[in-house]
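In this supplementary section we document a worked example of the pipeline. Step one takes a protein sequence of length 73 as its only input; no multiple sequence alignment statistics are reported here. Step two produces a three-dimensional model, which step three serialises into structure tokens for compact storage. The input and output of this example are shown verbatim.
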Amino acid sequence: MFGNPKVGTLLMQEDDQVAFELPIKLLLVAEGDHTKALYRDPHDFPNATKLSEAGQQIIANMANLYQSVLADL
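The serialised model returned by step three reads:
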């Protein structure tokens, strides 16, 4: 679980539906000798495309965080 209350609050003030997605989550599942990462792309959050420019940037930053964490696995 990853979260920043200040940033999450900004998103929830724009659209309360995003509250169901926060904090963002990453689930690691062992499958034999491999690990699978499961997460919901922030771009797919409810009404993500309707957020302000600042909200869109937060969503992009969240997606980048996932990619950064996954690159280290």
